[in-house]
Design goal:
Elements: E1 9-11, E2 21-25, E3 31-36, E4 41-46, E5 49-56, E6 59-61, E7 69-84, E8 92-106, E9 112-120, E10 123-131, E11 137-143, E12 146-149, E13 154-157, E14 170-173, E15 179-180, E16 184-188, E17 191-198, E18 206-212, E19 215-220, E20 229-232, E21 234-236, E22 239-245, H1 248-253, H2 256-259, E23 275-280, H3 282-286, H4 301-313, E24 318-321, H5 348-357, E25 361-367, H6 372-389, E26 393-397, H7 411-426, E27 430-433, E28 449-452, H8 460-463, H9 497-501, H10 522-531, E29 536-538, H11 553-557, E30 564-571, E31 575-582, E32 585-592, E33 597-602, E34 612-619, E35 632-639, E36 644-649, E37 654-661
Parallel strand pairs: 23-24, 23-29, 24-25, 25-26, 26-27, 27-28
Antiparallel strand pairs: 1-7, 2-3, 3-4, 4-5, 5-12, 6-11, 7-8, 8-9, 9-10, 10-21, 10-22, 11-20, 12-19, 13-14, 13-16, 15-18, 16-17, 17-22, 18-19, 30-31, 31-32, 32-37, 33-36, 34-35, 34-37
Helix pairs in contact: 4-5, 6-7
Bound molecules: 1-deoxynojirimycin (NOJ) and calcium ion.
Residues 166, 434-435, 453, 457, 459 line the site of calcium ion.
Length: 664
């Protein structure tokens, strides 16, 4: 079904007698965004109540005055379209919205500015589109977009930073929030919402800074000279978005961010496939292997084959190798990585041949250390070489500062990350970026942009006090609203017992006083494969910790290529339950923070009339993340859509369930 209706109702609005206010409501009438041209402000109402009181809009540039605007006309349109994507939480999406484009001219006639507003049932978005015909380029010095809340409420955010998103989340009253990165999730009264952006290209990321009582303004990541962006005279900014819902899980189920991105620019997407993977990775973080070629080198031909054999035996499609290329000795120093020179003990041709014979993809890795000039110099050649070798999936990394005072999240960074995505697409290579720019839904337009990091991932558990039990039940309501995350769940050796015994272990990146472990139960680790959506889902532990483990059956059965998803229940940082369908099978994941909890979940998402064999991976009756993290039980039973499941979770625990049609 594809149906688009554009009604071009044009309202002239420039006479003194006209009201200066134009309003737009969502198709269900519940969300309204209004724009007042006289004050250059917008406001947002939910069910008729003001949620965002009049808040400034505006852009400042060095070359042109974005001021004294007169409205030339207001164009209105509506759309109702169903579209599909090659992979995603949901393969079929519906974009139903109303649109209002307010076309304005500055009094001096130099600037034409259109404010484009869209109202969806799951939120609102707006962006600036300008033309300054007599300017080739403009220097943006500030964006004045504000978000002024009408009442206090709760917020769940990480602090604003132009260099990293790998920070701990905090719950704060809006009145106490001083700065935040987006997605910035909030609850005001009965309304859940999240401020973010969509379609971020050639522009710095937006953070939020407190400017007054319950008031926040957009603060853009600066360039080294303090300006924010250098853009063409004609330019369209990213969308500023506010997702809205009645329940916290409505935010997870919202498709607003993807709907505000453009359709795919890659015509043939048949080469882009979700996958499960393992990798030579965790050993380095734990300190029992190394990235560099020394006596602890992880990425050796022998180890590679061991991982490939394991993947082939366990219904896993990919294997990642980090530390395969020359340059790791310079990590943290000159950052002089070479992306086409394998270490002498890593025989790429042999490894790819071995993998291909077993139906396994080799995942390449480019750690740049933040040395963008070094990477961009090699990029084209490195991608061509990678494709030639048969490595068509690429994990990138930016662990290190950018040179010359450039910040990760500035326009410079946004341009670089995009350049890599487009260059990779030209070579039919998929990208999984670590230390990335934030996810604003560009995967719709560039479906080879698979997953990214952009929050504290599993690695923090290896060399710090680790992520608290609330972290993984916070991510779905915050970071993941932007898009998929390569969190890399799945530690089975939760207390690092095997690692502690290893004479090879050398602590790194942490103080020896830190008593490392994962703050979880085993069942929660399994549930995270479902909860933390990624088209590239990693079982990140050492494979020896999975070999022969009865609970690893879940990952063998799991399918990263899902067709449909639904968040069923949850509250930010407290608990969450998510179900996904892949083909005829369903996978359910539920998790909780430090508190034990039992959820009662109707199974009405299952196909009516089908009996399913449910395999339940639950916390043991005596499980507790702190004192007894590895206690689990696996049970099986037949269920139908008419049944209800009691999901009992230990403190810091979780539960995962596979539902497969029973054989008749
Ligand atoms: C940080 C990344 O997040 C991690 O996955 C990677 O192993 C290291 N950098 C080294 O590249
Ligand atoms: Ca990282």
């Amino acid at each position: 079904m594809k149906q688009i209706i554009f009604s071009a109702a044009v309202v002239a609005c420039c006479c003194a007698a006209c009201t200066s206010v134009a309003e737009l409501s969502s198709p269900d009438g519940r969300n309204t965004i209004s724009f007042d041209a006289a004050t250059m402000t917008y406001a947002v109402l939910r069910d008729g109540d003001t949620l965002i009181r009049p808040s400034a809009l505006g852009i400042e540039t060095r070359e042109a005055q974005f001021a004294d605007f007169e409205v030339a006309r207001v164009r209105r349109a509506s759309a109702d379209e169903t579209w599909t994507q090659p992979w995603g939480e949901n393969k079929t999406m519906r974009d139903r919205h109303n649109e209002m484009a307010v076309e304005m001219r500055s009094a001096d006639g130099r600037v034409r500015l259109t404010l484009r507003f869209r109202a969806f049932d799951d939120g609102v978005g707006f962006r600036y589109e300008w033309q300054v015909p007599d300017a080739d380029s403009l220097t943006v010095t500030a964006e004045k977009t504000e978000f002024r809340f009408a009442a206090d409420g709760d917020s769940w955010t990480i602090p604003a930073s132009f260099e990293t998103y790998e920070l701990l989340y905090r719950k704060l009253p809006l009145a106490e929030l001083t700065d935040a990165n987006t997605p910035a999730t909030f609850r005001v009264g009965d309304v859940y919402g999240s401020i973010h952006e969509a379609a971020l290209y050639d522009y710095p990321e937006m953070t939020l800074r407190k400017t007054g009582e319950l008031a926040f303004a957009s603060e853009l990541a600066p360039l080294p000279d303090g300006t924010k962006a250098r853009v063409p005279g004609s330019f369209v900014t990213p969308w500023r978005t506010i997702q809205l819902g009645d329940r916290a899980v409505d935010l997870i189920n919202s498709s607003l961010i993807l709907n505000l991105n453009e359709p795919s620019k890659i015509e043939d997407t048949s080469w882009i496939r979700p996958m499960k993977y393992v990798g030579v990775w965790w050993g380095m973080h734990l300190g029992i292997e190394s990235w560099s070629m020394d006596d602890r080198h992880g990425a050796t031909t022998e180890n590679a084959k061991r991982y490939i054999d394991f993947a082939a035996a366990n219904n896993i499609q990919g294997v990642l190798f980090e530390g395969w290329n020359e340059g790791w000795e310079s990590w943290g120093g000159r950052q002089a990585f070479d992306f086409t020179k394998p270490y002498a003990d890593f025989d790429v041709a042999e490894i790819v041949r071995y993998a291909r014979e077993r139906g396994i993809e080799v995942i390449n890795h480019h750690e740049t250390g933040g040395n963008i000039p070094n990477y961009e110099r090699q990029l084209e050649h490195a991608l061509a070489w990678s494709a030639e070798q048969g490595m068509r999936n690429l994990k990138t990394g930016y662990a290190g500062g950018f040179p010359d005072g450039y910040l990760h999240h500035s326009q410079y960074g946004v341009r670089h990350y995009q350049k890599v995505v487009e260059a990779a697409a030209a070579h039919r290579i998929t990208v999984n970026a670590h230390e990335p720019i934030k996810d604003c839904g560009i995967r719709r337009t560039w479906p080879n942009m698979m997953a990214r990091e952009g929050a504290r991932g599993k690695e923090w558990d290896a060399w710090s006090a680790g992520n608290p039990p609330s972290h993984e039940v916070m991510l779905p309501f915050t970071r993941l609203l932007g898009g998929p995350m390569d969190f890399t769940p799945g530690t089975f050796d939760i207390l690092y017992e095997r690692t502690r015994r290893s004479p090879r272990r050398k602590l790194w990146n942490c103080g020896p006083e830190v008593e490392m472990r994962v703050n979880t139960t085993l069942a929660k680790q399994i549930a995270e494969w479902v909860i933390i959506y990624s088209p590239l889902q990693m079982a990140s532990d050492l494979i020896e910790n999975y070999e022969g483990h009865p609970a690893f059956r879940f990952f063998r059965d799991f399918d990263a290529d899902c067709d449909w998803s639904r968040a069923l229940a949850g509250e930010p940082g407290e608990f969450v339950a998510v179900v996904r369908r892949a083909g005829g099978n369903f996978f359910l994941g539920a998790a909780t923070n430090e508190e034990a909890r039992t959820l009662t979940l109707p199974l009405d998402f299952l196909e009516q009339g089908t009996t399913y064999r449910a395999t339940i991976y639950a916390d043991g009756p005596d499980a507790d993340w702190k004192s007894n993290p590895t206690s689990y039980v696996i049970t099986e039973r037949d269920v139908t859509a008419a049944d209800t499941l009691e999901v009992a979770m230990a403190p810091g625990g979780g539960q995962a369930v596979t539902f497969m049609p029973s054989e008749k």
